[in-house]
Amino acid sequence: MLLEITDLSLSFHTLYGTMPVLDRVSLSIEPGEIVGIVGESGSGKSVTAQSVLRLLDRNATYTGGSIRFKGQDVLGMKEKEIQGLRGKKIGMVFQEPMTALNPTMRIGKQLANVIRKHQGVTQAEADRLAVEALAAVQMKDPQKVFRQYPHELSGGMRQRVVVALAMSSPPELLIADEPTTALDVTVQAEVLKLMKELSTQTGTSVMLITHDIGVVANMCDRVYVMYGGTVVESGKTEEVLFHSNHPYTRALIEALPEGKPKSQPLKVIEGESFNARKRPVGCVFWDRCPKRTARCQEKPPVVEGLNGHRIACWEGKR
Amino acid sequence: MLTVQELEKSFGTTKAVDQVSFHIQKGETYGLVGESGSGKSTIGNMICGLLAPTQGVVSFFGEELWKNNRFHRPKPGSLQVVFQDPQSSLDVRMNIRQIITEPLRALPREERLKKSSDDYLRELVRRVGMHEDHLTRYPHEFSGGQRQRIAIARAIITEPAFLILDEPTSALDISIQAQILNLLKSLQQELGLTYLFISHDMSVIRYMCDRVGVLYHGRLIEENETEALFTEPQEAYSQRLLASLPQMTKRS
C-alpha cells in the first residue's frame, strides 16, 4: 500500500467555534493506481488531499485516525521530514496554475531549480532535464517555453508546466486537486490524457480530486465519493458509477443533465449543499436523502460488498 | 423575436466577435456554446446593452437596439439578464425585496406599484422556490443556489419576453444545478419566455436548448437543431469539442 488513510478526523477552529470537517475518512492508494475523489463543495475532498501533505493552516487539528505513506506515519513526522516528502515523493498540482508558478521567474529556471533540488545534478544537467521535462508534457517548442515567463503562456500551457514541475523527478504519488477545472474542455482533455500517460510511464500513483463525474469516468481505476466530510461510497469506478448502492451517489448521477431526455425535468436532490455548521448527528446526507428512515439519525455502518465496493448507509445493511 | 446580423466587436485589433448572425424565435431556447474567449458573453452583453457593437445590427421585435453607438431601450423590462455568479450580481447591502424590485424603477408608475405589492412579491418568490420570509433578508444569508433563484426573480419581475442566461449554473454544485435548470424550464413554460442560453457546458446546452450555435474565436462556425448538432457535428472544431467532453457514458 502506497498511501493509507485510516479513520481520519479533522476539525477547524473558526470564529463560530470548533467545526468538524472530516469524519473518519478512510482511503487507500496502491502503487500505479489512479484514484478519484469526487464530491461537491464542502464535501472535504480538498481537505483530505491537503492533509496528506500537511498543508492545512494552523487552525486545523487532527482529532483522530492516521495517514501512512509507505508505512510511515505522516501525522507524527517532524516538519523537516514532511519537507522531504513534499514535491519529491508526493507531487501536487492545484487548480489555478498561475498561483503555482513564480510570475517573475522564467519557466526554465523554475523547473531547473526543482530538478537540482530533487536530483542533486549540475546546473547544465538540470537545464537539459528541464527542456526534456517540457518536451515530455508535449510542448511544441520546449526550448522557447524554457525562456518564457508564465504570463506569456495560455492557461493550458501553464498547467502543463505545473505538471512538468510535479513530474520532472517522478514522485511516487501525484495529488491533483481539480487540475483541469480552470481549463477549457478541449485543453482539459489534453492535460488529462497527458497525466494518464505520465502515470503509466513512470508508475506514479495519482489522487485526482474533482467535482466532475465525467472526468472520474474517463480517468480513474477506483473512486471515493465524499459528502459532508465523510466517504459515502467507494469502489471500482464502473461499480460506483453504474451500480451505485448509495442514495447520494445515485441522486448525484441522476441530477446530471448528460443523456437525460429534454422533455422531463431532472431528478433533483432537494435542499441545499452541505453546511458544516449544521452537521447532522447521524448520516450526513440524512436531511436530503429520499430514502431516509428513523434509523438514519444514527451514524450509518460501512457495508462492504463485492470487489471492495463499500457504502456507508443503513439501506445497504439489508 | 431577436435578430442579430453581422454583429462585430473589436477590442483594439482583436476581433472578439466577428460577423455573427442568428435569430431567435418566440418561445425557443437558443444556445451559444464555446470555450473561453470565443465571444459568447460579449454577444450577450451587446444584446442587453452593456457593450456597444463595433458593427452590425441587433433587433428585438423588429426594432434596432443600437443606433449610432447608443442603446435604444426596448419596452422597459422586456429584456432581462441572469449572470453566472450570484455572489457578485447581488448587492450585499440591499435586502432581497430591494434587490428583486430594483428593475421596477424603469417601469411606469402604475405597473411599478402593482408589482411591488406584497401579494405580487409573495407569488413571485414562491414561483422561484423561495419563501416570503426571505424578502427581508440579505444575500449573505443564502447559499449559491438560493442566490441564483433571487437573481431569477429579479429578472422576471418585469414580466420580460426574453431572458439572456449567461452561464446561469456554472458556479453551482451539480445537485443545485439540476434544481435551477428545472426551474428555468418550468418558468419558460408558465410564462412563455424566450431564452438565449450561454454556456461552455455541452451537456447543459444539450438538455436545455432547441437550437445551438457554436462559437470559435468570435465566429459562429456552426448552427443547428440541438440533436442534429450533437449527433452529427459538421465542423472539425465542433467535432473536437464534443469528443473532448468527459462523459460518463463514454466509459460504458
UniProtKB/TrEMBL annotation, chain B:
What keywords sit in the KW lines?
A: ATP-binding, Nucleotide-binding, Transport
Q: Name one GO molecular function term.
A: ATP hydrolysis activity
Q: Which residues form the ABC transporter domain?
A: 2-242
- Entry annotated with the keyword Cytoplasm: no
Gene3D superfamilies assigned to the protein according to its UniProt record, in alphabetical order: P-loop containing nucleotide triphosphate hydrolases
- List the GO biological process terms: transmembrane transport
* Entry annotated with the keyword Cell wall biogenesis/degradation: no
Q: Which family does it belong to?
A: Belongs to the ABC transporter superfamily.
The family database entries (PANTHER family) matched by this protein are listed as: D,D-DIPEPTIDE TRANSPORT ATP-BINDING PROTEIN DDPF-RELATED (PTHR43776:SF7), TRANSPORT ATP-BINDING PROTEIN (PTHR43776)
What protein does this entry describe? ABC transporter ATP-binding protein
Organism equals Brevibacillus invocatus
Q: Taxonomy-wise, where does this protein's organism fall, top ranks first?
A: Bacteria, Bacillati, Bacillota, Bacilli, Bacillales
